[in-house]
């Protein structure tokens, strides 16, 4: 289940992906299989060859692509998510969803008190 994004943000992601750009959207998310992850970033592009080539740069396997027409995408989670968002200069998403290591450290310290 996805939450924490607006319809406008989703539409902007779809437009970029449709224009064969690598598009990023991060949202809050819950899945029992990944109890330590509260967000997911979708890195999508209509051009599957371009998406595969981009993914190879980050060690992402083509079989990890979710082939959901018209928006095939990789789901990025955890440390790989943070690393790729930083490399792609998606700082607004890192800040908004508290994905920075320093932010996560502050949160975990707060929980201990």
UniProtKB/TrEMBL annotation:
Official protein name in the record: Uncharacterized protein
Organism: Alteribacillus persepolensis
């Amino acid at each position: 289940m996805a939450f924490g994004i607006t319809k406008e943000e989703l539409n902007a992601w779809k437009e970029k992906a449709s224009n064969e750009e690598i598009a990023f959207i991060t949202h809050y998310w819950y899945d029992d299989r990944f109890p330590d992850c509260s967000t997911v970033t979708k890195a999508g592009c209509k051009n599957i060859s371009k998406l595969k080539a981009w993914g190879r740069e980050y060690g992402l396997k083509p079989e990890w692509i979710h082939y959901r027409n018209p928006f095939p995408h990789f789901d990025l989670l955890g440390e790989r998510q943070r690393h790729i968002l930083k490399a792609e200069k998606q700082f607004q998403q890192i800040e908004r969803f508290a994905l920075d290591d320093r932010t996560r450290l502050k949160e975990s310290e707060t929980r201990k008190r």
